[in-house]
Amino acid sequence: MNGVNLNVIPTTKFKNTSITVDFIEPVNHDRFADLSIVAEMMESSNQKYPQQSLLAKQLSRLYGAGFGTDVLRYGQLHILRLVISFPNEQYLPTNESTFKMAIDFLRAVIFQPLAEAGAFNAMTFELQKQNTINYVKSIPDDKQFYSVLQLRKLYYHDDPNYSGLVYGTLDQLQAVTPQSAYQAYQEMLNHSQIQISVLGNVNEATVKDEINQIGFTSRAEHEYPVKVPVKVESEVARRVEHQDLNQSKLDLAYSLPIFYDSDQRFAALLFNAIFGGTPQSKLFRNVREKNSLAYYADSVFSSITGMLMVQTGISSEDHAKVVQIVNDQLTAIQNGDFDADTIENIKADIVNSKLAGLDSQRQLLNEQLVNNLLNQHFTTDEWCAKVKAVSKQAIVDVAKQVRLRAIYFLDGRDEDDSE
Length: 419
Description:
The strands form 3 sheets. The chain has a 5-stranded mixed sheet with strand order 1-7-2-4-3, with helices on both faces. A 5-stranded mixed sheet has the order 8-12-9-11-10, with helices on both faces. It has a two-stranded antiparallel sheet with strand order 5-6. The longest helix is centred in the C-terminal third of the chain and has 18 residues, at 340-357. It has 16 helices and 12 strands. Helix 11 runs antiparallel to helix 12, helix 12 crosses helix 16 (392-399) and helix 13 (340-357) packs antiparallel against helix 15 (380-388). Strand 10 and strand 11 form a beta hairpin. It has helices spanning 32-44, 52-61, 98-111, 122-138, 143-155, 160-163, 170-175, 178-191, 204-212, 265-277, 282-290, 319-334, 340-357, 361-374, 380-388, 392-399, and strands at residues 4-10, 16-26, 66-74, 77-87, 115-116, 119-120, 193-200, 237-242, 248-255, 296-302, 307-314, 403-411. With 419 residues, the protein is an alpha+beta fold.
């Protein structure tokens, strides 16, 4: 129906069947906190299973099914995801339809929230709200993740749609009420675009009939933009923060305006792998191994945001050296300083990783969602052929488009010692 799409992926490779339900809407930081708690409420209880223990017992009756929710930010999109994975009945000593049981479970999760009179149950709501707040408060303890967040704030100039946590800020979470979260749930249920994906040893017609029993209604169809426009700035944003740590964190953000719909997309994939995305990369070999300047050094590139990020764990006194050596590795690639054997070895690694992903239900379902959002559908053979076809010059051409935009340094010395 309008605004509700079903993707069926029949395969005999797995003994489990997995179903994902993705509620998709434009990214809006004002809704992050409400929807993060909505996800927690949906995962923990509903009217049919009003206590977490009862919900867990039902999953146990479904032969140990796994169920969870999450909130995701994918470019300019916000996604609330439900996922359930359960054994296919043909592998069980029973005539029960585990697929039908899973659909009944999802129907209760989606349409029977633990709520009344326009508000979530206060006691359960406060528990889930506090759990989310506790998680957000704990993030500064994970220094690597914390550093990435600070770098994003620099890169996106504190634009809360892209720089902040998709769970919302502490102030936003504190302000969420049972009423506001329930209203966000109703808006999501009635207006979000919905992608449902089913992967397993299933019959397509049967799946469609059962999914129709969930009870979704038509809604206005939208094709929301996905990729995040790159902001070009003349100055490199910089920030130094001091904490008493055994290991300092130095992260750098570059713009690389090559997106998933670009002819250079696969060359960008190869460039990142040579730069810092694999153990064969220049960052790994020259920053970490050859010069012993980093505990870790790697890079990640997103063809949705056009952002290239380098993460390193270093000793504080090596800060300037590491910045220089990282940028030297970029310059080397721009100058074509890498050989044919490196290219072929990294191509083989990328292709092997792609093929290994065919054995992961989670990865296949994620790819299905992404392909639909981006309206791109490559067969595995086509994808691998495009990787293998990338030339050295194409990689150099990509490297020349990289521009440094932000540097965040979490200095493990206190401020007095660093002077």
